[in-house]
Design a protein that fits this description.
By secondary structure, this protein is mainly alpha-helical. It is built from twelve helices and no strands. The protein has helices at about 1-35, 65-75, 85-95, 100-105, 110-125, 130-140, 145-160, 165-170, 175-185, 195-200, 205-220, 235-250.
Length: about 270
């Protein structure tokens, strides 16, 4: 009985081996078929494009304001703060230079959001007739510093030649943020009148204002002075160092015309700490 089971087991084992060996050529053939396959992209047909219809042109701003237009612009002023502020700004921009008197009026309205958006809208219209109103806001000590700073930036970009008297006042403002904004904006005014204003700010009690003044002077003149450790400087140190800038100014002020030359893109300032 045992011998009969052993013979059956051996026969079954040989049958399994024979079955496996018989399948090897099939697998090999399948492997050769898969290696001969190549990927190909089907022809691409783009979807049909919609027919182009040109948009309608915007209605041009009126040459002369009618009483209805004036009432409309007046009613837009309170909307500069709230959910419709972007729409109101767009309406003011559409009317262009006609909007400037209404926006200057908005600069004195209650609500800081109205005043800030009025400044921003004037920057979009780019009409220099709004500069006096902007500078009045910039020099107003009772106004928020962010609105004052933004008003000065916008006025400087509209016409830098008109902001020099304001800069002279603002570099002495009690608010250090305003002083820093003023001395930073001097680098956009290529007039030699700003150079003494910048030098006076080098002695500022706030270190960061002093460093901004130093860098603005260098950007306009390429004069950087001797190397000093500005990061750990004291007001007394800066009062001593500024003598070098005044000496340079006395020696070179006659070399400049009314307008400073526009310098080439600046190299790295070796005196920047």
């Amino acid at each position: 009985m045992t011998q009969r089971i052993t013979v059956r087991s051996q026969a079954l084992s040989w049958m399994i081996v024979a079955f496996l060996l018989a399948g090897i050529p099939v697998w090999a053939e399948q492997g050769r078929d898969s290696s001969d396959k190549h990927l190909a992209q089907l022809p691409y047909e783009p979807p049909p494009q919609p027919e182009y219809t040109p948009g309608e042109e915007a209605t041009p701003a009126p040459e002369i304001l009618t009483p209805q237009d004036q009432d409309r612009l007046e009613s837009l002023i309170p909307l500069l703060a709230g959910r419709q502020e972007l729409w109101a700004i767009g309406e003011f921009v559409h009317y262009g230079k006609h909007s400037v008197p209404f926006l200057v009026k908005a600069l004195k309205m209650p609500g800081s959001r109205v005043r800030f958006n009025a400044v921003e809208t004037l920057s979009m219209i780019k009409d220099p007739s709004g500069i006096p109103g902007l500078l009045e806001v910039a020099m107003n000590a009772d106004e928020e510093s962010r609105i004052r700073s933004h008003a000065l930036r916008v006025a400087t970009r509209l016409d830098p030649n008109q902001v020099i008297p304001a800069l002279e006042v603002m570099v002495k403002d009690p608010n250090s943020t305003i002083r820093n904004t003023a001395v930073f904006e001097t680098r956009n005014v290529h007039r030699k009148e700003v150079l003494p204003i910048i030098i006076s700010a080098i002695t500022d009690p706030e270190q960061y204002v002093s460093i901004t003044a130093r860098d603005s002077f260098w950007l306009l003149t390429r004069f950087s002075g001797s190397i000093h450790d500005w990061e750990v400087s004291t007001p007394e140190d800066r009062k001593e160092w500024v003598k070098e800038w005044w000496t340079w100014w006395e020696e070179h002020k006659e070399q400049f015309g009314d307008r400073l030359p526009s310098p080439e893109p600046p190299p790295e300032n070796p005196n920047v700490s």
